[in-house]
Design goal:
The structure holds 2 protein chains of 2 kinds. Chain A is mainly α. Chain A contains 7 helices and no strands. Chain A is elongated and about 55 Å long. Chain B is built from 8 helices and no strands. Classes of the chains: A mainly alpha, B mainly alpha.
Chain lengths: 158, 183
C-alpha cells in the first residue's frame, strides 16, 4: 500500500467524511489541536530555557525534563490524534502540500531529537552549569518545535 | 398623531444607538483606514501577523498552564511555587505583550467585522476574566503563599484559581479560533 493510497483511504474513511461535511466538527478538532499546541509550547520553552541556563538555574534539569515530559508527551499524543482527524479533511491536498511534508519531517526530527540527544543533554546537565553542548541542544530543540508550528500554520496558507 | 410620534421614535432610536455608535464608529474608522485596508488586503502580512499571534499565545498560555499544573501539585513539586512563578512570569508576560500587539493589528484590519463577531466578543470577555483571575488570586490567598507553598496540597482557593485559569485561557483560545468561523 503506497503512502498516497493510505492518504486517500483516510480521506474516504468515516472520519474523513464527518470532517468534510461538518464545519463545526473540523472547528472543534482544530481547537483541541491548538490547546494541545499551547501546552506543548509551554513545556518545550520551560525545559529548553532551563537547559540554556536562562531560568530555574538552581533546579535539576533532569527533574524538570522528566516531570514536564509527561505533560509534553500527552500533548504530542493529543496533537497527533487531532492532527490525523484534521488531515482526513483534506488528505489529498496535504499529500502534495510542501508545507505539510516539511511539517512531518520536522515533527519526526523533533521527536527523534527529543528522545535521543536532548534527553542526554538533560541527564548530563542535571545540576551543572550549561555547556556549549547543552545550549546547542536547547536551541536545536526550540528551532525544531518552532519549525513544526510554523510549517503547520503554513499548511492552511499555501 | 403620527407627526407627534415620529420624532419620539426617532429620538428613541437615536438614544438606543448612541451608547453603541461611538465604538462601532471607531471600528469602522480603523477598518477604513489606510493601514487597516492595506493589512487586510495584503498577500502575506496578515498571515504573518496571525502566525505571530498564534505562537505568542502558545507562549503565554503554555507557560501559565505549567504554573497552574504546579499549583495543582501535578508537576514540578520539588520546585517552590514562588520560584517557578518568578521564572515563568516574564515569559508569560512577554508572550502576552506580543499577542496583544499582534492581536490589535489583526483587529485593526478587521475591526468593522469584529464589532459584530460573537466569537470576538466572547474572547474579549474571557480575556478580561482571565486577567482578573490572577489579580484576585494575588491579593488574597497568594499573600500567604510562604505558609502553604511547601505543602503537598495547595489550599482550595489556590487550586480553584489554577483550574479557572486553565479554563479561562482555554476559552480564550477556543473563542479566538472560532472568530474565523463567524466571518
Amino acid at each position: 500500500m503506497s503512502l498516497h493510497s493510505i492518504f486517500m483511504a483516510l480521506a474516504h474513511s468515516a472520519l474523513g467524511m464527518a470532517m468534510q461535511t461538518s464545519k463545526w466538527d473540523f472547528a472543534i478538532v482544530e481547537m483541541v489541536h491548538l490547546l494541545a499546541l499551547a501546552v506543548l509550547g509551554g513545556c518545550v520553552l520551560i525545559v529548553d530555557l532551563r537547559l540554556l541556563g536562562v531560568i530555574l538555574k538552581g533546579e535539576s534539569a533532569r527533574k524538570i525534563g522528566r516531570d514536564l515530559s509527561r505533560v509534553l508527551l500527552c500533548s504530542v499524543v493529543v496533537m497527533i490524534a487531532s492532527g490525523v482527524a484534521l488531515l482526513s479533511e483534506e488528505a489529498g491536498k496535504c499529500y502534495y502540500s510542501p508545507a505539510f511534508r516539511w511539517k512531518m519531517a520536522l515533527l519526526a526530527s523533533a521527536v527523534l531529537f527529543y528522545f535521543t540527544l536532548h534527553r542526554r543533554a538533560l541527564l548530563r546537565t542535571d545540576m551543572e552549569a550549561p555547556t556549549i553542548w547543552s545550549r546547542t541542544a536547547a536551541v536545536v530543540s526550540m528551532m525544531l518545535w518552532l519549525g513544526v508550528g510554523v510549517a503547520g500554520r503554513a499548511i492552511g496558507l499555501l | 398623531m403620527l407627526r407627534k410620534g415620529q420624532p419620539e421614535t426617532a429620538g428613541l432610536l437615536y438614544d438606543g444607538t448612541a451608547s453603541m455608535a461611538p465604538l462601532q464608529h471607531i471600528c469602522q474608522m480603523l477598518y477604513d483606514s489606510g493601514f487597516g485596508t492595506a493589512l487586510r488586503e495584503s498577500d502575506n502580512a496578515f498571515s504573518v501577523v496571525e502566525s505571530v499571534h498564534v505562537l505568542s499565545i502558545t507562549l503565554t498560555v503554555g507557560t501559565i498552564v505549567v504554573l497552574d499544573l504546579r499549583m495543582l501539585g501535578l508537576v514540578l513539586r520539588s520546585i517552590a511555587l514562588t520560584r517557578l512563578a518568578r521564572s515563568v512570569f516574564p515569559l508569560a508576560l512577554s508572550g502576552f505583550g506580543i499577542s496583544l500587539v499582534s492581536g490589535f493589528l489583526l483587529f485593526w484590519a478587521e475591526a468593522a467585522k469584529m464589532y459584530t463577531n460573537p466569537a470576538f466578543r466572547v474572547k474579549m470577555v474571557l480575556l478580561v476574566l482571565a486577567g482578573l483571575n490572577p489579580l484576585i488570586f494575588h491579593t488574597t490567598v497568594y499573600r500567604r503563599v510562604q505558609e502553604w507553598e511547601a505543602k503537598n496540597i495547595s489550599p482550595w482557593r489556590a487550586r480553584a484559581a489554577a483550574v479557572s485559569s486553565i479554563a479561562l485561557w482555554s476559552g480564550v483560545i477556543v473563542a479566538g479560533r472560532a472568530i474565523a468561523y463567524f466571518r
